[in-house]
Design a protein that fits this description.
The complex is a heterodimer. By secondary structure, chain A is α+β, with helices and mostly antiparallel strands. Chain A contains 5 helices and 8 strands. Chain A starts with a strand and ends with a strand. The chains are: A alpha+beta, B alpha/beta.
């Protein structure tokens, strides 16, 4: 399966990855509309981590043995056997935050509604995730990893 | 003859089925469950009561789960006896199910203290879906409720009933609510939020008696508290906790303490007989001992470990600990491990910002994190949990762990890179 790897030595901390993630997870998929006209503003599923001079972006690692899947109280978090993705079903999610408690990367967010969680879906409808495609410095790369 | 027999089809039973099928696609599996539709999420019962979730939403696995995994699901049936010498389970009705490998995932039953009048109509527990259905019906005509217990279950019930418009009084025998998982400061934060939502909280008292109506003594009319106050109510919910359901191993060679004793493979003292979930005393990685912990995520994990071992794939349970994430009354919080140490010898780091309602607390022993409480700003708590579970020495960066913008970037480079390349 594929995983996004952050290269912190070339990350400038510009935050464009978060911007493109927000747009990709908006209704309109349009940067102006997503930022100005969608209320509440859609959430970036990834997180830019900064502690100068260090910066890099972290998102769901789609772990092989994913603790969030086993911990999920509602069955919303599943490991897709074919794609290897850890998928999240918003309809099933009860917003209990148990997955947040066990995610080693702090990569799961509370959605803007405050009722469900939100996390990286590896932009499953795109060939290359929006954050990777739009990083101006090649600090995010999509790599094939062997489980 | 079924190869695998599992008694109980909640978190641990489901986890075991999934693990067995990963290893053994063909061995026959029989699951025995008292409930008719067992694959629902118990922790979601409060959402069902509040009206937020339907049974459909509560199902943590789809309706074809048993079929897809080729499981013979004996639902609505009770396992009444074990014969370990001849290796069979006897069901209500007298029929027998033979096994090669057995998993006891019988779970817990509500703890009901001796209270005069607890048998009256209007007194409920809060564990199974059928409890929830009966309670949901009763709520339609009820106005006032007394919830006994202000732990995890009590708080969840109180929220659900409040959302349904009931006037709720929560009675807790300890001085603070959620006292098993919070310290006084965090408990007070939650208490304030709950009071604001309209709930009356009474601590340091117990319900002594439940009185009946003048016209019908069998129907709940009020609850009498320790100091003699009488709280009028239509409903009393007993939400103190659960005790393991171990009846089935009575008189067998399966060793028990407060729960069924298991090793790291989740096997009991009898070979080929495993136990998982609320009934088992499993390993706590913080206390470094086995204990009862009635928590859904742990039950599922223990079930998985048992399943692997039953199917012949060696797996060790790495352990859980007291770990709770709460969403109730809109105040997200996470508590793990020794969150409120009673003895000396611990180092406590606290960041409390009452204005922002933020609270972060870490408990350390010899520079290893053994407990935490995060209130409101909880999204990075999992990183701390990781450090805890892996016994990472945090001496050099402990102050950063409770800082407002704590994240992975604050961890030492070597540790961070190791973490991010794993998983």
């Amino acid at each position: 399966m594929k995983r996004i790897i952050a290269k912190e030595e070339v990350c400038m901390g510009c935050g464009l990855c978060e911007v493109y993630c927000t747009v990709q997870h908006s209704k309109s998929k349009d940067i102006i509309k997503a930022y100005n006209r969608e209320h509440p503003r859609p959430l970036s599923r990834i997180r830019l981590e900064t502690n100068r001079p260090v910066s890099f972006t972290i998102q769901c690692r789609h772990c092989e043995d994913a603790p969030c899947v086993t911990a999920c109280l509602s069955g919303a978090m599943r490991k897709d056997e074919e794609t290897g993705l850890v998928t999240h079903d918003e309809e099933k999610c009860m917003g209990c935050w148990t997955c947040i408690m066990v995610c080693s990367y702090g990569a799961i967010k509370m959605d803007v509604s405050g009722k469900v969680i939100a996390k990286c879906d590896l932009c499953s409808e795109l060939d290359v995730p929006a954050c990777v495609a739009n990083c101006p410095n090649g600090a995010l790369v999509l790599q094939e990893v062997t489980p | 003859m079924p190869k695998y027999v599992i008694i109980g089809a909640s978190a641990a039973g489901i986890g075991a089925v999934e693990a067995i099928r990963e290893v053994d696609p063909v061995g026959t599996i029989t699951v025995i469950s008292e409930e008719l539709c067992p694959q629902y999420s118990r922790p979601m019962i409060s959402d069902f009561i509040s009206g937020k979730a339907t049974l459909e939403k509560m199902k943590c696995r789809d309706d074809r789960f048993w079929e897809k995994n080729e499981v013979q699901a004996l639902t609505g049936r009770t396992a009444v006896r074990l014969n370990l010498a001849d290796r069979y389970v006897e069901l209500d009705g007298g029929d027998r199910v033979n096994f090669e490998k057995l998993l006891l995932a019988t779970g817990g039953k509500p703890f009901i203290p001796k209270i005069e009048g607890a048998d009256k109509e209007g007194v409920f527990t809060f564990t199974t879906f059928s409890d929830a259905e009966r309670l949901a019906k009763k709520i339609e005509s009820a106005k006032r409720a007394v919830v006994i217990g202000a732990g995890l279950i009590g708080v969840s019930v109180a929220e659900a009933l409040t959302k349904r418009g009931l006037e709720v009084t929560m009675v807790e025998v300890k001085d603070k609510i959620l006292s098993l998982i919070l310290d006084p400061a965090a408990s007070e934060m939650v208490e304030n939020v709950i009071r604001k939502a309209g709930v009356t909280i009474v601590t340091g008292q117990m319900v002594q008696r439940i009185l009946g109506k003048p016209e019908d003594a069998n129907v709940v009319d009020s609850a009498v508290l320790t100091h003699g106050d009488q709280v009028p109510c239509d409903l009393v919910i007993i939400a103190i906790g659960v005790v393991p359901r171990m009846e089935i191993v009575a008189g067998t060679d399966v060793k028990t303490n407060r729960g069924i004793i298991v090793d790291k493979s989740m096997q009991t003292s009898v070979p080929d007989v495993y136990a998982s979930g609320d009934v088992a005393e499993a390993y706590d990685f913080v206390l470094n001992e086995n204990r009862l912990l009635a928590l859904w995520p742990l039950a599922q994990l223990e079930g998985r470990v048992a399943g692997y071992n039953m199917a012949g794939k060696k797996a060790d349970y790495t352990g859980g600990t007291s770990m709770s994430a709460l969403k109730y009354f809109g105040i997200p919080l996470i508590s793990v491990g020794i969150a409120n140490p009673k003895e000396d010898g611990y180092e406590v780091l606290v960041k409390h910002d009452p204005e922002k309602s933020l609270y972060k607390k870490l408990v350390l022993k010899d520079n290893v994190i053994v407990g935490m409480i995060f209130v409101n700003d909880i999204e990075r708590a999992g990183i701390i949990f990781h450090l805890m579970k892996n016994c990472v020495n945090v001496k050099k960066f402990k102050q950063e762990l409770i800082s407002e913008n704590f994240g992975l970037a604050m961890l030492p480079s070597r540790l961070r890179k190791k973490m991010c390349l794993e998983g």
